[in-house]
Records
---
Amino acid sequence: MPMAAPLIWRFNAWLPSRLLTVRNGRYQTSPVVKRSINLARHKTSVSLENQFWEALGEIARKRNIPTAVLIEQIDNNRTGSNLSSAIRLFVLNYFKTVGRLSPSNTTPDLNASEPRPR
């Protein structure tokens, strides 16, 4: 019988510190990190692998904007219903585009956050 994930106290609510899975009777930390953010005065949570959180922070630093502002821009430009997926696609497209550009401080357009229909 799987055991429930342990909970820790944060900001007046019980929340899992990281998403946990039980494998062979032992807890294993998932590579997915869940963070709470405010979008348009509405609190929501986003689950992303830590590498995507780090990449998102790197993009925000290069643009000299807070990560929260970048997430809000991605949210405003997304066409799908899942914010986590939109962020992953944005990060992927950002680094694909940067890889094709000559080495400079240019940053790709935010509208490249999701693939366009063919």
---
Amino acid sequence: MLNRLKATVQKAQQALTGKASVPPDFRTLTVPSYVQARVDNGGLVLVNIRKGLIFQANPMGARIWQGLAAREGPATLNELATEYHLSREQVVSNTAQFVSDLVKHGLLICQ
């Protein structure tokens, strides 16, 4: 499991930095049926019904979640970098960490 997660994060970083033509990480990550999501102006709330876990994220986390759900790629990262006045590298790093945390808490499944 840990090796698959590391590989997925590496693939995500390659895809998000434009070093891969198709974002393979988005195809290997799925939202389990026992996870409910709600996005609003304040951010994101995820609930893992099986574990009773509630996970909150800020508006940037909500945008990343929406991009994952829509299987969007590098263009979304450019938009985030512009909107939040961050470097593209920082957005890639934040996204990789966010995805890693979601997988670690069972809110995404790495296949």
---
Amino acid sequence: MDMKRVRLYVVYRIHVYECNMDFSCIFYIVAPEQLEEEKVYAQTDVWRLGVLFYILLSGVSPFKDEDDTQTRQNVQFVRFQFQHLHSNTSQEANHLILHIFKKAPL
């Protein structure tokens, strides 16, 4: 449980730095159900790990867009692109990302 908090704190600090200390940019790592203030599931934590995984494989945030509104919409509608991933990314990694980035069941 403590390790989970440390990892989320590190991600939070990375994104706060990336957004020039604007604390509203935490939505870069949250799941759609959190943006919509709905019930969260175990998959919500997996989503955050998926964001980290995608960043490690591509060097960019999976849902980042030109402005915050579009980025929020990308998260809410689960819109991301595989073209940002490094060319030598395995099929297994691509499948894992597909399985992680799904809206939690209603």
